[in-house]
Design brief:
Elements (H helix, E strand, L loop, with lengths): L5 H13 L3 H15 L9 H5 L5 H4 L14 H8 L7 H11 L22 H6 L4 H5 L16 H10 L6 H4 L2
Helix pairs in contact: 1-9, 5-6
The chain binds heme C (5 copies).
Length: 174
């Protein structure tokens, strides 16, 4: 039953939890909104970099082999920016982090609340030939990565059903 209208039902327990306390509901909404419009410490444009002929997994090096896709370290950015585009204001911010030997404190765009106990893994999806764009939208046109897809349990389960992938609770939950 739950699986059939999973998207809606996955949300109800959360609303139920927070309804008696309006402050909780407000915080919950703020959480969702910050995730959707996270302001990044450096405005890294995906489109500009994809035009250079880079592949997604050149930077997100775990996406084909690990659970997490990963965000590249500032040292990777500096392989090019030690020389390139040093005068652009956003690149100056990047260089300032590199000079201080600090990682850039990127705001997460995707993710699940820890309450949901979800374990997602990139590698099996990569092996099943599911394009990054299916789950993240077309980043070759995006500047700062937007939250293009809002994952509910329904989003995951309906594809798993179509593709004959596992629908066991323990596949996706710990
Ligand atoms: C030159 C390196 C680079 C390349 C190439 C690149 N990315 Fe990114 N990506 C980043 C950085 C840095 C961030 C963190 C900043 C941000 O979220 O905007 C990021 C963020 C993301 C996020 C959001 C992560 C989160 O916080 O949840 C997604 C999704 C993503 N990239 C997917 C892609 C896809 C798909 C491609 C290929 C079309 C791609 N990236 C190519 C560097 C890169
Ligand atoms: C393969 C080389 C390469 C790598 C790796 C690379 N960049 Fe760039 N980046 C460029 C080039 C080339 C430009 C200038 C493009 C242009 O002017 O059209 C650029 C432009 C930029 C800009 C300026 C965009 C603008 O127009 O204001 C920012 C910000 C930036 N990169 C951040 C990063 C960050 C952060 C990383 C690491 C996650 C990174 N870059 C990794 C080559 C690279
Ligand atoms: C089946 C859907 C799906 C596909 C396909 C997919 N992702 Fe993701 N991606 C997600 C989900 C869900 C998250 C959030 C995971 C979490 O927080 O546990 C995520 C998170 C990310 C992040 C944030 C950092 C991290 O390690 O979690 C990056 C970067 C990313 N994906 C890049 C990519 C790239 C690049 C590809 C293609 C090679 C890709 N994704 C393919 C669903 C997908
Ligand atoms: C577009 C289709 C699609 C979407 C969306 C999707 N998956 Fe999958 N998923 C698959 C396929 C196909 C496999 C590979 C099954 C296989 O290897 O036999 C898979 C495999 C997995 C596996 C590994 C299962 C195993 O047996 O090792 C996990 C975990 C998983 N998915 C979790 C998720 C979660 C969580 C989401 C939502 C955030 C999600 N998936 C969204 C199609 C999808
Ligand atoms: C294909 C992956 C997948 C499978 C299989 C799956 N779930 Fe989920 N489930 C998710 C994702 C992803 C979320 C988080 C959605 C969100 O953040 O809105 C979720 C959320 C939930 C929540 C809400 C948790 C909360 O507090 O937010 C419950 C309860 C839940 N799942 C129970 C189950 C049960 C029981 C099963 C087995 C019948 C199951 N799930 C199977 C992916 C899955």
């Amino acid at each position: 039953m739950r699986l059939d209208s999973a998207g809606v039902f996955a949300c109800i327990p959360r609303f139920g939890k927070f309804m008696p306390w309006p402050a909780g509901a407000v915080l919950w909404l703020i959480g969702i909104c910050t995730a959707a419009f996270a302001a990044q410490p450096v405005e890294f444009p995906h489109n500009t970099h994809m035009k250079l002929g880079l592949a997604c997994i050149d930077c997100h090096t775990g996406a084909d082999i690990r659970a997490a896709a990963g965000i590249p370290s500032v040292t990777k950015c500096m392989l090019c920016h030690a020389k390139l585009a040093r005068n652009k204001p956003e690149v100056k911010k990047l260089i300032a982090y590199a000079d201080k030997k600090q990682e850039i404190p990127w705001q997460r765009v995707y993710g699940f609340s820890t309450n949901a106990h979800v374990k997602f893994r990139h590698a099996p999806h990569y092996r099943a030939n599911i394009a990054c764009a299916t789950c993240h939208g077309d980043l070759t046109k995006a500047t700062v990565a937007p939250r293009a897809v809002n994952f509910t349990m329904g989003t995951c389960v309906s594809c798993h059903r179509q593709r004959n992938a596992s629908q066991d609770c323990a596949t996706c939950h710990y």
